[in-house]
Specification:
The protein is of the alpha+beta class. The protein has one helix spanning 40-57, and strands at 3-9, 12-19, 22-27, 34-37.
């Protein structure tokens, strides 16, 4: 299993990997911001949305 780190938004790092038929990921800097999807692109989009929601609640 290979794990990849990428910038999701300024100052926030997404950690993503593929497990079985799913892509899973989370934001390192904010606990509880995570997602899963069938494709890598969909996961990155989902993580961005989840991060936006978390930041709105702060």
């Amino acid at each position: 299993m290979e794990t990849e780190r990428l910038r999701i938004a300024l100052g926030y790092t997404g950690v993503i990997s593929q497990r079985g038929g799913w892509w899973i990921g989370w934001i390192d800097e904010i606990a509880g911001v995570n997602s899963q999807a069938k494709t890598r692109g969909e996961l990155i989009e989902n993580l961005g949305s989840a991060l936006d929601e978390a930041l709105e609640m702060r």
